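pinned: reference chain
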Amino acid sequence: MINYKEEIAKQISEVTNINWEELINYLEIPPETKMGDYAFPCFKLAKTLKKAPPVIATEIKENIRTENTIIEKIEVVGGYLNIFINKKLLVENVLKEIDEKKDKYGYSKIGEGKTAVIEYSSPNVAKPFHIGHLRTTVIGGALYKIYNALGYNTVGINYLGDWGLQFGKVMAGLELWKDEYDLENDSINSLLKIYVRFSEEEKQNTELTDMARKWFKKLEDGDEYTKKTWEWIRKVSIDNYNKTYKLLNSKFDSYNGEAYYNDKMDAIVKELEEKGLLKDSQGAKIVDLEEYNMPPCIIITSAGTTIYATRDITAFIDRVNTYNFDKMVYVVGAEQKLHFEQFFKVLEKMGYGEYVKRAVHVPFGLVVDKNGEKIGSRKGNSVFLEDILNEAINKSKKIIEEKNPNLENKDDVARKVGVGAIIFNDLYNSRIKDEIFDWDTILNFQGETRTLHAIYLCKNKKFNGKSKLCTRY
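pinned: its structure tokens
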């Protein structure tokens, strides 16, 4: 495969007489595709060449040949060169390499001997798997496969939200209303209804919040009845999630959730105290981050319980000791940006700075409804992912019935194409922007999704051969 950055740097080097290995570090990816595939800022060459950046940019453009080369065109914008690569040549080279390498296309050995840990999916236990968890599961699953293809020893962690105050809410709700719900035959949906009801009623009754805190404290203290109830809730939830993971073909190497670190947090709190990092604040214990213009990071709440940051710090240190990772990737929503900045900073202060440098938060936008409201279990407006996948499968099967009613293994093909279309739709959209959930849009097999559908059927000889798309693929 052509190394485009290297080739562009070498062509600029021929014009400027500056070493291409220096120039390659200046090449950037523009924020928008209309600004080119690569951008080269000429400001850094002004001192060396003793010319104004716009003049340098114009001279480079005029002296680089674009006819029958990897560069299709160059535009000068102020002191920048916006460089557009030759798409026809790119496609030819990519297809040639795919033909040569087959299933090993894109593979390399740059990660050999290194370990990459990826935390993704991570649904909250006691709630069904809803549409909001699709993005982390799909993006994380793609990264897992990419790191594997690059030669890394990749560890996928499903960091289940199986600890925290939400369990106090569910358990308190069970005590109050368990006889009103069908917990035996419809366990997961009943648990969700109890959680939503409790979250709504506690807004008007603060005593319910205190009740939830007491239940969670009993769980943290190891009360036998509370622990057995928690184990039942966790099992019911995981059984439900596995149905969706089976449809998505998602697999994980570890299901160590927040609860796994319950007996490991005391040591971390003690380490924070010994290093003089903990401070008392209104009954809580915090790490002061004012010098970094951040709110304090709460470690122990005023109720004496741990919090997300406590568990995430503990999990990070445990993964350092378990995997000695070279990369630690968190595929978590963009709304958690401050949380990661805070606990990463605490880890730095604890002396884990070298490992923090290897960690990255991969954020993504929320899934919102047409009114811009976040879709989530607390609001009671959840859309279950299993329902969406089944709808996509049914729609795919309907298309197959119309196009090729005699196709063998129609159910299997419909499952692969339907689920594949949902995954493709999510990866195709901007990762950072919020995604508006709309049934018509997500199940629309037009445009790129329709093309993907047709390519699969054509390549696997599943179409009747009359589609114009089959003649292309």
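why pinned: The radius of gyration is 27 Å. The chain has three domains: 4-88, 116-368, 385-472.
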